[in-house]
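Incident log, support desk, overnight shift.

02:14 A customer reports that sequence design results differ from what the structure should imply. Their input is reproduced verbatim below. On-call engineer (initials T.W.) acknowledged and began investigating.
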């Protein structure tokens, strides 16, 4: 039995080139590590739909509820947060710093199904929860029409 060796170097080179070509047009957000500056301004969101409302869960740990600003203008719901940088303490040497609080801003288009006057928000355990109630649907009542 003869043992055959394969050289995968050209394959790896082609694969790397293909991957680079594939990701060339994507934003920097997907090419950099999570801690890089491209993630500045990003806050992940989950959206759930219930029978009577939509719920947005926006992950933003380390903020307080006073740091958030929520606006609704022209059917655009904008959620932003900014945390002031902590003052550096004298006589303290920072050995390692892996996290920082960054500002972010996310906008969502609200459709006509949402009752904009009753939107509410709460901040629990690092998650901002927005409740967007649906408008009550006016159902046409059934009406019998008699033939004359």
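02:41 Re-run completed on a clean worker. Output:
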């Amino acid at each position: 039995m003869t043992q055959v060796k394969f050289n995968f170097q050209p394959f790896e080179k082609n694969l790397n080139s293909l991957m680079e070509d594939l990701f060339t047009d994507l934003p920097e957000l997907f090419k950099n590590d999570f801690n890089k500056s491209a993630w500045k301004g990003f806050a992940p969101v989950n959206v759930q739909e219930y029978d009577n409302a939509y719920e947005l869960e926006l992950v933003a740990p380390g903020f307080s509820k006073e740091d958030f600003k929520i606006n609704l203008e022209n059917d655009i719901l904008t959620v932003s947060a900014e945390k002031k940088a902590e003052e550096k303490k004298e006589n303290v040497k920072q050995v390692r710093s892996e996290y920082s609080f960054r500002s972010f801003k996310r906008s969502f288009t609200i459709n006509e199904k949402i009752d904009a006057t009753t939107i509410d928000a709460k901040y629990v355990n690092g998650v901002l929860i927005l409740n967007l109630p649906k408008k009550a649907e006016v159902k046409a009542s059934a009406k019998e029409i008699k033939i004359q």
